[in-house]
Amino acid sequence: MPPTALQPVRGTRDLIGEEQRRHQRVVDTARRIAALYGFEEWATPVFEDTRVFSRGLGDTSDVVSKEMYTFTDRGGDSITLRPENTAGVCRALVSNGLAQAGLPRKVFYAGPMFRYERPQKGRYRQFHQIGIEVLGAAEPLADAECIACGWHIQQELGIAEGTVLEVNTLGDAESAAAYRAALVAYFAGHKDRLSADSQVRLEKNPLRILDSKDAGDRALLTEAPTIFEHLTPAAAAFFEAVTRHLDRFGVPARRNPRIVRGLDYYSHTAFEFVTDRLGAQGTVMAGGRYDGLVEEMGGPPTPSVGWAAGVERLALLLEAGGLTPAVPRPVAVIPVGEAAEGPALDVAQALRRAGVVAEMAYKGNLKRRMERANRSGALAAVIIGDAELAEGVAQLRDLDAGTQETVPLAEVPGRLAP
């Protein structure tokens, strides 16, 4: 009896075919546009000392309390698969001695993240993110430029019309303290109506109640105070500068006072790009300003701002818009007879060096190889037999038009190069 076929672990999947092409389009586009804004790509480990995340994300966040993949390794150390990458980038800044000079650092990253949560469409236990961080910039222009870069990436992907930017401020430390007191006073009066999780948040971090998905909690938010009633003049001026810069960048935005970040290290700007093209409204890109995280990693105070976006969500928007990248059409190189195999291989390599996808069937007569070329969607076939070898030529067949011509072997790559 044959063994049972093994399947991927729940919450993971294989990226093959159209899914892989959409995924790669997102990452490649983001990498290219981020580079235009001066971002340098960093690659940090997929697992870190657990303290990197427990310090940075806060004990009250769902990520730390419920979702992290944490284990003890053979040396007795607590290790965590990264649930996000901002904390890892900040750790890298400090541990590589980059936090003292040469700031700001503009960082782009792309890669897999891991969270133990209920799998659903567009959300997996191993998922992928792209993101950017500006480390060491206190100016509101940095916030606006980060957002503009994210908007530019969406425009290049062709999905910008399907997303909306919502922006909020979390204020400075004084604003946050006043707002926290107002939230505690308000929710304390409705404590019996709060979910169990939000009753805990009320004691530890009441701002997190604004991010609750519980229907009862959300009903209470309609009358809850907003941060704008508690901003200091300096915090209000910072937010006004961010929105002014966004206008100059040409990024449309709407204010949403209920946006908070799910992590504990944010201040001032918080934003989300949301969409309703995937069913219920969902977030595809989110971030904000965090001025204390580098310090949590053992570095100096370092004002920073950035965002992360789910590659799976962005890829779904490509699919919804019919924007799946096409497979490059190959050229089939077909030797007829053993003597033609070597010269045919030379032609295939010359085509590849010229930027042309070239395929050679490993076996079969001319008829079978032509059938394979047609099945692959090849745009042309280069046929080389004994007669062609004798004259130093190839038969170049246009598989769309059905025409054929004789071409000198040395001219084949130039005729087919893009």
Automatic annotation (TrEMBL):
Identify which top EC class this enzyme belongs to.
Answer: ligase
Record keyword Secreted present:
no
List the InterPro entries hit by this protein, alphabetically. aa-tRNA-synth_II (IPR006195), aa-tRNA-synth_II/BPL/LPL (IPR045864), Anticodon-bd (IPR004154), Anticodon-bd_dom_sf (IPR036621), His-tRNA-ligase (IPR015807), HisRS-like_core (IPR041715), HisRS/HisZ (IPR004516), HisRS_anticodon (IPR033656)
Record keywords, A-Z: Aminoacyl-tRNA synthetase, ATP-binding, Cytoplasm, Ligase, Nucleotide-binding, Protein biosynthesis
Substrates-to-products reaction catalysed: tRNA(His) + L-histidine + ATP = L-histidyl-tRNA(His) + AMP + diphosphate + H(+)
Enzyme Commission numbers on file: 6.1.1.21
Taxonomy, superkingdom? Bacteria
Q: Which CDD domains match?
A: HisRS-like_core, HisRS_anticodon
Q: For this UniProt entry, what is the primary localization, expressed as one broad class?
A: cytoplasm
According to the record's subunit comment, the protein's assembly and interactions are: Homodimer.
Family, per entry: Belongs to the class-II aminoacyl-tRNA synthetase family.
Return the protein name: Histidine--tRNA ligase
Q: Give the species this sequence originates from.
A: Craurococcus roseus
